Amino acid sequence: MNIKLKALILLFIFNINYVLAQNSLVEKNEIFKNLRCLICQGQSVADSNSEFAQTIKLIVTEQISNGKTEKEIYDFLIEKYGDWIVYKPPFNKTNFLLWFFPYLVLIFGGLFIFLTLKKRVNR
Amino acid sequence: MKISFTKLTIILLILFIMGVFFVSLSKDSMYNTKNLVGKKLNNVQLKSFTDDKIISEIDLIKNKFTLINFWASWCTPCQKEHPFLLSLKGQKNLHLIGVNFKDNKNNAEAFLKKLGDPYHYLARDDNGKQSINFGIYGIPESILIDENLIIIKKFIGPLSKADLKFIKEKTNEY
Amino acid sequence: MLSTLGNSLLIINSALSVIIIIFGYKNLLKKQENIFNSIFQICILQNTIIIVCFFTLITAFILSDFSLIAVYQNSHTLKPLFYKILGTWGNHEGSLLLWIIILTIFSFLFLIINKSHSKNFRIYTLIIQNFIILSFLVFLLLNSNPFSIVVPAPKEGLGLNPILQDPALAIHPPLLYIGFVGSSIYFSAAIASLLANYEGKNFAISIKNWVMFSWIFQTLGILAGSIWAYYELGWGGFWFWDPVENSSLLPWFAMTALLHSLIVLEKRNLLYFWVILLCLLTFILTVTGTFLVRSGILNSVHSFASDPSRGIFILIFLCLMIFASVIIFFNKYKKTYLALNLNSKETFILINNWFMIFYLVTVLIGTIYPIFTDVLTDQKVSVGPPFYNTVIMPIVVLFLVIMTVGPQASWIKNKYYNLSLLFKILAASILINLAIINFFDSYSILSNFIIISAFFLIIHNLFELYVSSKNKINFSKSISHMGFGLLVLFIGLNHNFSLEKDFNLKLGEKKNFNNYSIEFKDIQLIDSKNYQAIKGEFKIKNSSNSISQSLFPEIRIYENPQTLTYEASIRTGFLKDYYLTMSNIDRSDYYNIKFQKKPFMVWIWISVIFISLGGTLRLFQK
Fold this sequence. Notes:
The complex is a heterotrimer of chains A (123), B (174) and C (622).
Chain A: H1 2-20, H2 28-34, H3 51-65, H4 70-81, H5 96-122
Chain B: H1 5-24, E1 46-48, E2 54-55, H2 57-61, E3 65-71, H3 76-87, E4 94-101, H4 105-115, E5 121-125, H5 129-133, E6 141-146, E7 151-156, H6 161-172
Parallel strand pairs in B: 3-4, 4-5
Antiparallel strand pairs in B: 1-2, 1-5, 3-6, 6-7
Chain C: H1 2-29, H2 37-62, H3 69-74, H4 81-86, H5 92-113, H6 119-142, H7 168-181, H8 183-196, H9 200-232, H10 243-268, H11 272-294, H12 308-332, H13 345-377, H14 385-405, H15 419-439, H16 445-471, H17 476-497, E1 499-505, E2 510-513, E3 516-527, E4 531-542, E5 547-551, E6 554-558, E7 563-567, E8 569-572, E9 576-584, E10 591-599, H18 601-621
Antiparallel strand pairs in C: 1-10, 2-3, 3-4, 4-5, 4-6, 6-7, 8-9, 9-10
């Protein structure tokens, strides 16, 4: 059993190492999908055919070829158009609750169940 | 029925959520950039309509107030707001810059010839890239800035009478 | 005339609801153990009338009776007959009528099918359900009446949104409504259970088939919506975490948690108050979702035309419903002790519920957070796919592993786990994952975990199916669980191996990239019944196997109403789909082309069918 466990762990590590040899390219399509179109407000820049979307695609492509990182591009557009334009709510004081509340629920829910069950076992 | 602390919290929480929902009914779900004021413009590179000159921040600082108006000949609301722009031409302390957006040169010239040219300076943005720098997303759209290049107000869509009044008051009070 | 008929029927049914409530109350006061015959007769009448009312509206649409505002706003004489009929529920007012039909039919069926249960319980359920029916009838009559007229009657209608002119409109709303509107019956039953003190095993038995039935339809309804979005909307995706989609997903999480907890309630008479809470939660989420969607407070692709007064009605109903159920629940709640062994099936079901609540809270928070920031700070934020994917996906890995191990546990106290088998399956999963990375392409670390845990779940359930079929035990659970594993697997593979290319092309030009070459061969102008179109012909050549396919995307211009749509051309294949959309660029003879290769799309749909299949088999078992 011990050997099996070790073999499994080794297999797993091998798997992960195989994967780590990957470089991350700034995919322009991924960025387009993360931006909202201000004209067709229900669509992403990737899906929208509005003038605005087409112009944004130009700007983002240009910035990528200028070596800007994904975060820099998002920051630039947030500065011009507000937080609304990105689908991923930025990590700041206001949005802190948004990102952490689900995990808080997960942790407290788990604690709650564990303690409720433990109480009975101890009786 | 005795109300415990947990029950009270739950009831208050529900009341709070319902309250927020009620208030949200009176809000508009469409997003606009009207609140993005108070920021400073940078990286201004407006190409002249007629020649190769480029107007940048240095030129804008010279004016007490500048109204940058993005327009095009193919845009119908632009025709509606044009009389308002013409009436602003003589306004003191105010400099008018028109940015012709993704337009055909001949059509733009015909438009101005027919309806009048209110601009002190005419620029062009053929591919729309400069408009992004100003935070523009639709046509027509106008931005009022002061001599420090701080955005005072954004006008989304064609200028209205109220907008005109605001601009006149703002530039008069200087 | 149709309008008068429709209105009269609605008013009669409102009166009938009131009568049922009054008679029901009288019946409760009487000691006798049977239900008045008159109540049954009135219920039958109520059901008949609402069905006739619905057919009245359909008739109005078929006849293009534009004196009715609903028909005027949503139909047109040139529309194909199929869509004239479907247009009946393709709008806010008509769809509410569909809501009421389902509320009414479920009310009656629950009454007569649950003959063996306590009289008080059945009557309380009937009364509460009729309060819901009455509320919706009042809402319909006062605010959203499909039979309200416009004078003088227009000669022609405004037409139905072309995106809605799709066969999926025939099945998506009805499936979903049987799902989440159907959950109203166990909401009512839960309150009835509290009021009538009809608890435990009996209560579980009374609602379990209803929960399963609505869950199956909710699952299929969500599937239909995704398939429709994929084939019709032209962006190549099937889930956008859009508020309207989330509104259908939230009740689904609650229903899934509920149907698992019901097993514990029935078998061991535990978790009663938790089950009640879930019953209440499901329908409350349904109405909350309806509020979010129809009030117009959220920005969405799917929005019905919005009107704040609708929002006020639904919100008031929602408040009354929540407060009534909360007060009754608090009143009747008794602290019970949970006697559970940490290593038992009951605990694992609790863990399932724990994760379901996590998913529910995440999706709920993501959906309503923008409302709160807007109201409280006057700032607008967007919460989109990156949020949901980032928060949920890591937890799914853990969930899949627990989902593999948990169901094997025995009731009360589990003796052992077949650890050696689990290890072998885990090793096999890692090897398969390595093979995929080796022969195809690599992906993120998180995706590795997801693929491995998905295979772990799938393979283990295949074993379970094999064992079950040999021992003639029912295998509905294994089919559903395996379906879920397949769903995660294929979504993961689809996400990682999809190819997307966005470029501009002129007629006659060719674009080469990766293993593909796309040639813009032809443009045709098409003149159809209610639209004109520009149809492009593109030849896609896969250089690795020299297979060519032709795709024909369209740009359609509809007249009534004046709309522009982009019809994707999709080649559905066993292993992958090719997806092409074409859109025009203003003032240019270039067209913007979006080409996508999407692997395993069909398998994603099939996985969901497996999930609901398990539930269906379970329903037919007992």
